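Morning F.,

Quick status update on the modeling queue. The single chain you submitted on Monday has been processed. Sequence for confirmation:
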Amino acid sequence: MNKEVLIRTKEYQTLEKRINSFLQGYKQNLALIGPSFSGKTHLIEAFLENNLLSQKFIFLYTNLEFSTFSNFTFQVFSSLLFYYLKQKEKFVNDYNLDTLILESQEFIPRTIEKIKSILSLTKEKASWEQTAQVLDTFTDETQEKLIFVIEDFTLLKNFSKKFLLDLAKYITLQKNIMFIFKK
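Structure tokens below.
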């Protein structure tokens, strides 16, 4: 086995260990930092490929590249519903939020109600706190844990200071969501 494969195996085992600790009830968050094309995405994809339909967690993914807050919120909701339906084996090929809402309505009505109420707000009134309420409602309604990957997390600096403070506070207090920050 060459050195690169050994390092990636070690990194995979570390990722797996941290996620398993989270699933057992321990607070866990992780930052994957490294140069472009160093295998960070492959590491996460390999883990998900092995565990996505395991019924242990729901995957949630958002990429902050070219993202505004409203786009971020849209990505969070779309990703949440897409991977939830995928785990329920309700395969939806469309990443369209309206379609995902319709397909999810019967399974998670309280979560969908929260999403709809936030989507009806003007962009200026939306906040991280409201997005967090959707995530909390979802974890309460489904009893599922979330693994939330935020790609290009250094771009969070482009969001408001209030958003960053609210997100930091939420991450600190959260037990049902593991955040993986990737750069």
